[in-house]
Amino acid sequence: MLTLSAPPSEAAATHNVPAKQKKLLVRRSSPDRSQEIRRCVQIALLLLNAYIGIRFVLWVRYFESQGNSPYIERPAGVDGWLPIAGLMNLRYYLVTHHIPAIHPSAMVLVCVFVLCSLLVKKSFCSWLCPVGTASEYLWKLGRKLFRRSFTVPLWLDLPLRSVKYFLLAFFLIVIFAMTAKELGDFLVSPFGIVADVKMLDFFRNIGALGIVVLAALFVLSVLIQNFWCRFLCPYGALMGIVSVLSPVKIRRDAQACIDCGRCNKACPSHLPVDRLVQIPSVECTGCMECIAVCPAENALQLSLATRRPRTSEGLPAEAVAARWWQSALKPQVVAALLALVFFGLIGAARASGHWQTNIPREIYMQLVPNADNFDH
Ligand code: SF4
Ligand code: SF4
What we know:
The protein is mainly α. The N and C termini lie far apart (65 Å). The protein has a domain at 34-243 and 335-373. Residues 1-19 have low confidence and may be disordered. Helices cover 57% and strands 4% of the residues. Helix 4 (104-119) crosses helix 13 and helix 7 crosses helix 13 (234-243). The strands form 2 sheets. The chain has a two-stranded antiparallel ribbon with strand order 1-2. A two-stranded antiparallel sheet has the order 3-4. The structure holds iron/sulfur cluster (SF4) (2 copies).
């Protein structure tokens, strides 16, 4: 354990002003593993999504070839890419108390991700979401290429950040304005049944405009940290709002902190971590990047609230920091919690028969090859 102290600043000595005393650094006794663990979870989810995507394409091909290719069971996890269907199903369930038969896994996955956000901030975005992972690797690529990420000026940042909330509000207003009958009719309509195939078709038959939009998003994501997540993603907006209720937050111990500002610079959400005692922001994704770069023992934690001492006067920094440490969540625990919610809820849905869409193969044989013709 290395302890440093700083000499008084030259300016203070010259003008006889008492120098702001530099704090003692109690170095971390063990290296931080949060980013390795988070990367493993991200990659596992990326691979899972790739596996689901390949199976889904093969499933669609079976029907498009009129049964002349091997049949593969539909991977219900593809419904994770239908968040609007998931919210519609959830609303339908809340009103009727019946779990819809079409795309029930979309609703289950919305519940999984909401529960993850309730437990550990907006962890869905930084630990689980494949788009969030792609976004993160794109800005990291941009930083390698240009040695920096570009920032949007403050006057533009705020209005741009509200776009995702307006999009979320739009979807919620439309969904909540629908009656249970309208929702039910929509979900069992040909369009509702093959919504997943329509989504695939969007990418398979992407037009010039779609390519331009995707290319623009790609370039902006390379240049600006988390461009899609920060400004545009309504799903992330929902998770952020839910995450306000999370008892777990990034918490800083001002006694142990040496005010080096590294956490501030590392935060992909541009949060002033080094100036707050806890981070209540809807933008905090629980990515733990701030913790990973912090040099001081127990200065930053992803932790439950603990009772703060009435006064920390006279206590050594280690003693104060230890209080946070007692309720801190290690990255292994975060990963385990997310896995528990993910596999627990999906397992329960499977066991109770609310995971797969139960549509006879003959109906899919009529609908899937004609997905282009259905509109809502
Ligand atoms: S405050 Fe820390 S955990 Fe939250 S987004 Fe910033 S770096 Fe990630
Ligand atoms: S990284 Fe942040 S919390 Fe850690 S010592 Fe520096 S300013 Fe304090």
